Known about the structure:
Layout: H1 2-10, E1 16-22, H2 31-40, E2 42-50, E3 60-66, E4 73-78, E5 83-88, H3 90-93, H4 107-110, E6 116-117, H5 118-121, E7 127-129, E8 141-142, H6 144-149, E9 155-159, H7 161-164, E10 176-179, H8 182-198, H9 212-216, E11 219-223, E12 231-234, E13 239-240, E14 244-247, H10 259-270, H11 273-281, E15 285-286, E16 294-295, H12 297-301, E17 304-305, H13 312-319, H14 325-336, H15 340-352
Parallel strand pairs: 2-4, 9-13
Antiparallel strand pairs: 1-3, 2-3, 4-5, 6-17, 7-14, 8-10, 9-10, 11-12, 11-14, 15-16
Amino acid sequence: xxxxxxxxxxxxxxxxxxxxxxxxxxxxxxxxxxxxxxxxxxxxxxxxxxxxxxxxxxxxxxxxxxxxxxxxxxxxxxxxxxxxxxxxxxxxxxxxxxxxxxxxxxxxxxxxxxxxxxxxxxxxxxxxxxxxxxxxxxxxxxxxxxxxxxxxxxxxxxxxxxxxxxxxxxxxxxxxxxxxxxxxxxxxxxxxxxxxxxxxxxxxxxxxxxxxxxxxxxxxxxxxxxxxxxxxxxxxxxxxxxxxxxxxxxxxxxxxxxxxxxxxxxxxxxxxxxxxxxxxxxxxxxxxxxxxxxxxxxxxxxxxxxxxxxxxxxxxxxxxxxxxxxxxxxxxxxxxxxxxxxxxxxxxxxxxx
Length: 353
C-alpha cells in the first residue's frame, strides 16, 4: 500500500488521483491507511463490488481522492449490492476499524444499539483462533489407538473447519487425532527460527497449539469462513485448526457451574435468524467477489448481545429440548418487540442465504 501513500503525499493541493485497488484496502491490515486518508483527504467517490479482471482472485474498487481537507460527502456505489449513496466520510471514523460501507437506516439495528456487545460478556481472548500449525500438522497427529489408550488427556479429536462443523445441529465430523505436545511446539518453532535466520529472513512465523485449558473446558466452536454464522456448543474435549474460532467463558466473571448454560444460550442466539441478519447488515461476514466469505474475531466481538441468567427469557431459551430453532427465533422476536414488518424482513433475508 506504500504507493497509495506516496502518491497522495506528492499530490499538489486541489489535485486528484484515481486508484484502482484490490479489495484488501477494506481489510483490517489496511486500517491505518484508511484512517489517514479519511482524516486528511477528500474522497470524491468510491466504486465497490467490481470483479472485472479475468484470472484475478479478488475483487476491485476504484477510489477518487482530492488533496483538500474533507468537507463534502462521498459518492459511494456498490455494484454488487446495486446501491448508491452519498455519505459524510467522518462517519467512517466513528467505526473502530474505519470500515467503509453503505449504511441504511435500519429499525432492527436501532432496537439493539442500547445492548452491550458480545465482547462485554466474553472479554480479552475469550474468542480466539485454535491451532496454528502452518504445514506441520502431521507432526502432531497420532492414531485412534493412541487416543483410546491415552490417560493424560493431551490427545483429542481434531476438528477442521467446515469439514467438521457443517451445521450446529449435526455432530462434529473428524477423522484425525492430535496430541497437545508443547515441547514439540517449542522445538519446531526454534527450528523454523534458525532456518529463517540462515536465509536472512526475519522470523515472523510461529506455530501454536493454543491454550490447553480452552480445549478441556465447555466451549463454542464458530466457523471462520461461511456465508452465515455457524456455531456449535460442546463440553467434550476437542482441538481444532485455525479455520475454527473458539469461544470460552474462562476470562468472564460467570460462575464455573453456570458455564454450560451460558454457552448453550449464547450458541442458540448466534445461530438464530436475527444473528444471521445482523451478521450481514453489520458486515460481520466479509463478502468479497471471487473470495470465500470471512469472519474476523474483531468483528464477532462487536455483535450486539444481551445475557441475564436470571431472566425468564434466558430460562426459556436454554430449556427448549429437543432443539427447535423456530421456537428460539420467536422467543427473540417477542423479547426485542419486533414489529411484524421487521420480523418479515428478518425471515425473508434468511431464505436468501
